[in-house]
Write a structure and sequence with these properties.
6-stranded antiparallel β-sheet, single chain, 10 helices, alpha/beta
Length: 372
């Protein structure tokens, strides 16, 4: 969040004044010390919010590139399709800190860019661990990651956190398949903090579900492992029946699971929902439009229910993309003509004038000419 919006947040939460509590009879009363404190705080916020946040000044810049080396490779699912990869710096130096929910951006030798959630120990500053499921008919990133061996080097950016974990109160954790990676780090943290937690872990089968050996050592009264081949596909009730009243729900998994949890959340006793997708979100309220590729002059039709990226990817398989959710910026493209309908918050107002993220953004009407 930009510091310039701090005042609005405080105002929305009713925290812009520092009023004294009522007296013993419930009457409002002035308090000179509190009025002075309010005036000082207002001046402080006025100075503080006059400057934009600069990650370089604040500490590690997640946009800066690091070269990391694979130090360990381990199969962590019984069907052998998920591997755990540990990465360390070339010189053994300490790595930037991270918190549960964080991910890394991998720039692979082929030119592909992919994001993987950190699933190791945040206190271990000398190594990052991720787990990758091999998808032979996917976009190629998982196959390339599986080919990495100890000693292989990759370019990495991050860590970034678009799925933050609040280490207090009570929580229900819901994971589907490889969505276990960010959730596992959160469950470990909740156990260490002594939180009131519950955990529902779903997958196609026990053989396909990574980290089961560790998870089966957790308190069985708090963990429900429900493979689809044993229990059937889960409903929103199945996924949310352990929600703690007034607590939070953290969910990561395939799109159908996330949509099911989102639909059922309002009927649950939980108070907050946090989720992360492992795929592109569905296109909502879309309209059909055209894009023209300036390199060939070819005009493509983008259907109302498809993303610009998915259509372009069919013609240009090498087009850059990663998160498919509008926050990583990998699919940024120059708009040479037409007006984009921006459905992201990554680009600045100035950048949105002639650029767009084709994974989520669309046309406001009429044809877009793209620098592709």
């Amino acid at each position: 969040m930009k510091l310039a919006s701090m005042r609005n947040v405080l105002k929305a939460k009713g925290l812009t004044r520092y009023d004294a509590p009522p007296d013993i009879k419930g009457r409002e009363r002035p308090d000179r010390a509190m009025r002075i404190t309010e005036a000082v705080a207002e001046k402080y916020l006025r100075v503080l919010t006059a400057y934009e946040y600069n990650p370089v000044v604040a500490g590690h810049n997640p946009d800066s590139a690091m070269t990391l080396v694979v130090s360990h490779r381990q199969v962590v699912a019984r069907d052998a399709n998920v591997v755990l990869l540990r990465f360390e710096s070339e010189d053994g130096a300490a790595l930037p800190e991270w918190h549960p929910g964080s991910h890394l951006d991998f720039h692979l030798p082929s030119g592909l860019r992919r994001q993987y959630s950190l699933c190791g120990d945040p206190s271990d500053r000398h190594g990052y661990s991720i787990a990758v499921r091999r998808i032979p008919d996917g976009g190629g990133g998982s196959v390339e990651m599986h080919a990495l061996e100890p000693g292989s080097s990759v370019t990495v950016r991050g860590p970034r956190n678009g799925f933050p974990f609040v280490g207090e109160g009570s929580a229900l954790f819901v994971a589907g398949g490889i969505g276990i990676t960010p959730i596992l780090a959160m469950v470990r943290a909740a156990r260490e903090l002594g939180m009131d937690w519950q955990f529902v872990y779903s997958g196609r089968s026990r053989e396909s579900m990574p980290f089961l050996d560790e998870i089966e050592t957790f308190d069985p009264s708090r963990v429900f492992i429900r493979p689809d081949d044993e229990f059937g596909l889960p409903s929103s009730t199945d996924l949310l029946e352990r929600a703690v009243p007034g607590g939070a729900v953290y969910c990561c998994g395939p799109t159908p699971m996330l949509e099911s949890v989102r639909r059922g959340f309002t009927s649950s006793p939980a108070a907050a929902l946090h989720f992360e997708r492992f795929g592109a979100p569905p296109v909502l309220d879309g309209r059909e439009f055209e894009v023209q590729l300036v390199s060939t002059g070819e005009v493509l039709t983008v259907p109302a229910d498809e993303s610009t990226l998915s259509v372009i990817k069919d013609r240009l398989p090498g087009v850059g993309y990663s998160c498919q959710q509008g926050f990583c910026g990998t699919c940024r493209v120059k708009v040479l003509a037409g007006k984009a309908e921006h459905r992201e918050n990554r680009l600045t107002d100035a950048e949105q004038q002639d650029e767009m993220l084709i994974c989520v953004s669309r046309s406001e009407g009429g044809r877009l000419v793209l620098d592709l």
